[in-house]
Amino acid sequence: FGKATTLADDNVTTGKDVFGFKTPKKSGGMALKAAEEVNRTTPKSTRTTPNARLGGTPRSNSKQVTPNKFGTPGRKSANTTPKMTGSGRKRLEPATPMSAKKRVRKTLNQNSYNIERNRYSDSDQNSGDSESDDQKSDSEDEENVKPILKPPSTPSTPARKGRPVRIARSVNTNNIADSYFEAQHAKVITSNRTLSRQNTPRLSEDEVNKLLSKAGIRYEEEIAELIEDHKEQFIRWLSLVHRGYSVITYGLGSKKSLLQDFHKQHLSNCDVLVVNGYFPSLTIKSILDSISDDILDIEGSFSSTSEQIQAIHNTLEEDIYLIVHNIDGPMLRNAKAQTCLSDLVSHNRVKLLCSIDHVNAPLIWDQYKLAKFNFIWYDCTTFLAYREEAAGSDAMMKASGGLQLASIQHVLEALTPGAKKIFLMLANYQIEHDEPSYPGIPFMELYTQCRADFLVTSDLELKAQLTEFRDHKLITSKRGSDGVEYLIIPIDKPTLSSFLDNFQGV
Would the pTM of this model clear 0.70, i.e. be above it? Predict the structure, then answer.
């Protein structure tokens, strides 16, 4: 530069002459300078400097690194890569960024995964190839291992070697069809090992009672104490029935003796009707007749049970106590009997005490009947045997008089209305012609009556209905000396009359 006095001279100088560089201009001079600085290495200094001159700082043995243009001063840049030029000189170029490397690596991995997936899908479609081809492909795959991001689908398990090949047998469908229809056409063979053919002896009623009397009662003292606890409720029962409630007892064990004790202690001087609901020949008509004839002495006949109940209500002047053992008995659990009993008890002069033993006994009453009964429930578990309640069952005893009334009722509930009318016609004819030598109703006479009432249209239809009666053992048939078929119901007249009274509305 010139001296500062130049500005004060008279001659005017330009800024280019004052501030310009005095070095010659060369193209590419800065790049060559940078390359020289990169390639230049500083030689190690052999001269030692005393520690006093450095101020106590230990001498460093690290090499001096010349700062470059692209990197951080003091270290070599990792983002530059020297390349040789055509003139033999090295030229610095920036390296590939890390984000670009990751993106390229991700693309390569995805392409590799797609290739592997396509290869496995092709191998699944061509599963019929031989094992030698599979082994060859496996060896090639082992040589060319490529990264897989996700595991491929599991290949199918190869078949075992040495397994014999099964040859499909020829099936004759015509023979199969013929054998099926032949089997369906054949008569079904059933076993003849029935209860009637067994060697189990049938006992009489006296024998059964004798065997039951020999059996002792376990826990007799505890049972007696339990019954005494129940007897303490007698005063409360009597108070409840006088307030318009009905007492019903439930629980395990016979409760007949408990109700009998209540009868003896508190109702000995009253009008009491005791009903054994477990009798198989019991009907609601017999209960109403006992009240109207034996207690109230009502004269006359009644066309229906509702009319008889209304006559009883109009005649009542004093309380009547009705004690029913097993109000859920076989002949009282139907809707008609329960409706009649609820109507009878709805009067404030009729007092009801009863017991139930069946586990589903409450299901026989709806809300309408329960409102009329107005029950108060008492748990009276006694653990006593059902000796008298089970005496009417003929499961272990000989049948006296043929079929029981309860079994006839259960069978008729499953029949059609027309079948019920035919059976009632048989029963009415048998009662009207009750003679010691009565053989039964002739078939043609029954057919004439049924045809007149439009119950059947042909004799074949009547025979089919009689076959159903025979299967249920409702009737028996026999041929007389004249070759005529006679039909008869194997039951005595009193039981059959009770049955007809119970089925008046049919």
Answer: no
Q: Strand 485-488 vs strand 441-442: parallel, antiparallel, or unpaired?
A: antiparallel
**373 vs 245: CA distance, rounded Å:** 7
Q: Are 497 and 431 in contact (CB under 8 A)?
A: yes
Give the contacts of 373 (CB within 8 A, at least 6 positions apart): 246, 248, 341, 342, 345, 352, 365
Residue of 470, 477, 472, 467 lying closest to 442 (CA atoms): 477
Give the sheet arrangement for strand 476-479, strand by strand.
Answer: 441-442, 485-488, 476-479
The residue count for the chain = 506
Which is it for the CA torsion 325, 331, 333, 335, positive or negative?
A: negative
Question: pLDDT of 130-141, one tens digit each?
Answer: 555 555 555 555
Specify the amino acid at residue 149: L
Write the pLDDT tens digit of every residue in 64-82.
444 444 444 444 444 555 5
How far apart are alpha carbons 371 and 352 in whole angstroms? 14
Taking the C-alpha atoms of residue 153 and residue 145, their distance in angstroms, rounded to an integer, is 17
